[in-house]
Amino acid sequence: MIRDGYVVTWQGREFDAVPDGDDVRIYTTQPADGFEEVKPGRYVRVLTPEEYDELVYVRTTCTWRGAPFLVLGEADNWFRVEYTGGRAPVARQLGLEEFDFGVYQAWAPAHEIRDLHEQRI
Predict the structure, then answer these.
(1) pLDDT tens column, 84-103
(2) Overall pTM surpassing 0.85 (yes/no)
(3) Residues 6+ apart with CB under 8 A from 59
């Protein structure tokens, strides 16, 4: 599973989270006590800082063609990756698309991805 976003540990479990001032909104796909359905299959609960154990940002990184990347998403054995090496000539040499000024991205075949792991910030 590719993750890129906030995660809260609450009652021994990790939940996708969105900071909201001092509070945090957590989400689940199943009905649960204290959660409100916001759309079919999506439930939310607001926690105060005293209620949760840890709030971290989780992102997935990898190496592709020998260069460092963030993994932004995945679809059908492809990964959407963003170059983090900071060198435009290398990005161009890799054939990456300049998504925005200085931001280079591509779709990479999953079988070419190496060193896939999560970073907790």
Answers:
(1) 999 999 999 999 999 999 99
(2) no
(3) 3, 4, 5, 70, 71, 118, 119, 121
